[in-house]
Design goal:
The chain has 398 residues and is an alpha/beta fold. The chain has helices spanning 3-20, 34-37, 42-46, 73-82, 95-115, 142-151, 157-173, 199-209, 229-232, 235-239, 248-257, 330-336, and strands spanning 63-67, 87-92, 128-132, 182-188, 210-223, 246-247, 261-268, 274-276, 279-289, 297-298, 302-305, 311-313, 319-321, 325-327, 345-348, 360-361, 368-369. The strands form four sheets. Strands 1, 2, 3, 4, 5, 6, 7, 8 and 9 form a nine-stranded mixed beta sheet that branches. It is globular, with a radius of gyration of 26 Å.
């Protein structure tokens, strides 16, 4: 059997069973804010499996996509965090998990609306929906694809190839998750379940659906050293969130390779969840941002890295020493105004503002200091020569 297919089959079978009866061995225990659990049906909580809580990093009003949403616990927590003006979409491939989540959705919405005194009309907590698909192929809605195949069943080779064309048309014309459409992608202990051959596609899909300036907040299991092939070929270890894990450094690198910037570990489980054949497996939560692409223009802006390290290297290759004033392009300058950099840099406006229409290309392949005279205050007179102290007739000087 194809490796990717074998991994998918093992995961689907195990999680189908776990949707019907709780399995304690799936991923590690997580403490969630009990305030958010009160309105969630017990069958959702009992059959939810994860290793972190990315929902604690969300903000009101955001559109959130949860990958591998399972029975929906993170979605229902996220619904409360983003509030009635926000929106939450859960994606999962397991029908049994989705059925539990979809059955619970109106119950959670009703309880939240009653809790907050929301009646008919205006924004409400009916802000969660669930869609069936593979998280490494967020463009193909499997429910819609099944409807199409039911009308045109596959009976021969020609039908098989025609079905592939139909799937491509659905991805193009009616994507399950559109390009640049969500503020935050979250996931809880699911990325490791995707076949190794499809992980690059998975990270590319996360990047595709995020808006510019959006971010991913992903909790997953990682290993402290590479997982050997024999363990990767074990279906029980794979479906148990073990043998599909990326290494600690490989997890971070996957975000970088997909184009993300500002990648950082926001939660690190100090004690390993499990140790198998001497390899430690633990939970990490990563935050990463989309939006560093674009042209570089010279507008005479400067930045100063504030510390605490002696120097840093950013995602565009700018190496900056603490306390030095550096020249940056307008794109980098605007990035540093926002999370996660805002508290790390002092931003210095140019002495003479340059309109973007008049700006010249900036060479971002090198790091150069910015002349202080380019960024002094507007009241600075560049033609004034330095002089000695001014003295009054009585001999006093200032």
């Amino acid at each position: 059997m194809d490796t990717a297919l074998a991994a998918s089959t093992a995961v689907k079978d195990r999680y189908s069973q776990a949707a019907q009866a709780q399995e304690a061995a799936l991923c590690c225990p997580v403490d969630y804010d009990p305030r958010y659990l009160e309105v969630i049906p017990e069958e959702v909580i009992a059959r939810d499996y994860g290793c972190g809580d990315p929902s604690k990093h969300l903000k009101p009003g955001e559109t959130v996509l949860d990958l591998g949403s399972g029975t929906g616990k993170i979605c229902f927590i996220a619904s409360q965090v983003v509030g009635p003006t926000g929106r939450v979409i859960g994606v999962d491939m397991t029908p049994e998990m989705l059925q539990v989540a979809r059955d619970a959705a109106p119950i959670v919405a009703q309880r939240l609306n009653a809790q907050h005194g929301i009646t008919n009309g205006g924004p409400s907590f009916g802000n969660v929906e669930f869609r069936r698909g593979h998280i490494q192929d967020l463009a193909l809605d499997l429910d819609r694809f099944d409807e199409t195949l039911a009308a045109r069943p596959i009976e021969n080779a020609a039908d098989y190839f025609a079905a592939g064309a139909v799937a491509d048309a659905l991805r193009r014309d009616a994507p399950m998750i559109a390009d640049d459409s969500v503020d935050v992608v979250v996931s809880n202990c699911v990325l490791n379940l995707v076949a190794s051959t499809e992980k690059a596609k998975l990270f590319a899909e996360i990047y595709r659906v995020l808006k510019r300036g959006g971010r991913a907040v992903i909790s997953d299991i990682v290993s402290d050293e590479p997982v050997p092939a024999a363990m990767q070929d074990d279906p029980a270890l794979w479906s148990g969130c073990i043998s599909g894990a990326l290494t600690e450094s490989g997890f971070l690198q996957a975000f970088e390779d997909a184009g993300f910037h500002g990648v950082r570990v926001v939660e690190w489980q100090s004690e390993p969840w499990r140790t198998v054949e001497g390899i430690e497996f633990r939970s990490l939560t990563i935050e990463a941002y989309k939006g560093k692409e674009g042209p570089c223009w010279e507008r005479n802006q400067g930045v100063v890295y504030l510390g605490p390290f002696k120097e840093v290297l950013d995602d565009d290759g700018h190496r900056m020493q603490r306390g030095q004033r550096y020249a940056v392009c307008d794109k980098t300058y605007q990035l540093y105004r926002q999370a996660p950099y805002a508290e790390q840099f002092a931003l210095i406006e140019p002495r003479a503002s340059i309109d973007l229409d008049d700006a010249q290309p900036f060479d971002c392949s090198r790091t150069a200091l910015r002349d202080p005279r380019e960024t002094k205050g507007l009241d600075y007179d560049a033609t004034t020569e330095a002089s000695g102290p001014t003295c009054a007739p009585d001999g006093s000087c200032c």
